[in-house]
Amino acid sequence: MRRLVIVVAVLALAGCGGEAIVPGGQSAHGGHDAASTAPPAPAASARFNDADVMFAQMMVDHLQLGISLSQLALAKATKQEAKDLAGVIDTTQREELAMLKSWLKLWGKPEGGGANLHAAHGGQPLLDDKVINDTKEKSGAEFDLTFLNLMAGHQGAAVEMALTEKKEGSNPETMAYAERVASTRQGQIAQMLKVISEQ
């Protein structure tokens, strides 16, 4: 599993050079990371298409699972780097979740259905409630490695969804958000791969 997820994450990084997110909110190049410096996204305009709605709904499901895994890591991770990454992901994704829910409400679209959309577009995601519950049983270095692998794969899936939205979406705010997702998640994946390599 470790090698499989690393390969998925590396493939997600190909083509775009996201910055690594390091502890303390500083980027690998000395500045702040993309998540902490990006201005708040404006309310989405009323112009949207089916791709925008599908992306928002899938991301709602995706973000909720990522928050659950991050909360678990904040409680159980032993490596400080893992805790720092979990904290960044938890904070960022809670803000994004509230934003996406407000957009879907504006468009008159339901928040739910994201899991079913995942199944209809390539199968079930790597992360689900069962996987998170199984992860709760692990501890120490085994937990850290499991968390980093799962989250790297999970964020790689977000990059894939964001790239699809950039190609097929029409709502400018949603497409701008997809650009930020692709950049920040690639940076997080790079940092997680670095921590994994040091295990």
UniProtKB/TrEMBL annotation:
Which first-to-last residue range defines the signal peptide? Answer: 1-20
Specify the DUF305 domain's residue ranges: 52-194
Keyword annotations of the record: Signal
Q: Which InterPro entries match?
A: DUF305_CopM-like (IPR005183), Ferritin-like (IPR012347)
Q: Source organism's superkingdom? A: Bacteria
Q: What PROSITE patterns would the database entry show?
A: PROKAR_LIPOPROTEIN
In terms of PANTHER family, this protein maps to: SLL0788 PROTEIN
Its name, as the record gives it, is: Uncharacterized protein (DUF305 family)
Its lineage reads:
Bacteria, Bacillati, Actinomycetota, Actinomycetes, Pseudonocardiales
